[in-house]
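Course assignment 3, question 2. Fill in each field.
Student: A.L.
Task: Predict the tertiary structure for the chain below.
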Amino acid sequence: YTLSEAVSLPEHLVGAEAQRLGQHADLVPAAFVIPPSFEEGFYRHNNLPFQLSAVFAPIRPQRIDEDVLEPLCLRARALILGSALLDDQVQQFYRALHNAGLESGKVHLRRPGGLDASDQPVQVETAHARAPGTEALHALKRLWASDWHFGAVLARLDTAGSVALEAHPVLVLWGEAGQPDARMADRLKVKRAWVNDRGLVGLGQSPVV
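Answer field:
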């Protein structure tokens, strides 16, 4: 989805931050949003829920052995990185890059949100976009694989009692991840805004009161 389209779409499809960025699309460099269904299709096609369940079968949430958990997280990340997308998904991703004008230069990918609690997004993957877009596609898989880092898995076990996760949208934006910019935040009446040399690339959710 384009950022302009994101404004009128349900939050669960694009993320609240993408909706906010869409309201200022004239300030944002080339960008688009990948919906959760794209990640869900990848997991489903590769039977990853079953395979990941088998990987983490030795883990008991009631009594987590971190020494056992850590190598299992490495196996899970390798499983994600070693799995392939359907050709239709690959072509859809390449078309989205082309339509957004992101076939050359640097791009970064991240989940929408999470900017209010930190001076940087929690997880960012970068790539040098070249047609058709293979490097950017690899960056997307690295972002998905980051959900299986030890800290992320341990947090899910602590809070939900399970390693399972929900798919989330992904933002693909031109240039670097950017830095907090107080003047842009004042202009847009938010506490935090992120800017790179191309323009606005991030908005926190907390308004100035």
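Instructor remarks: The first strand starts at residue 31 and ends at 34. The chain has ten helices and seven strands.
Grade: pending
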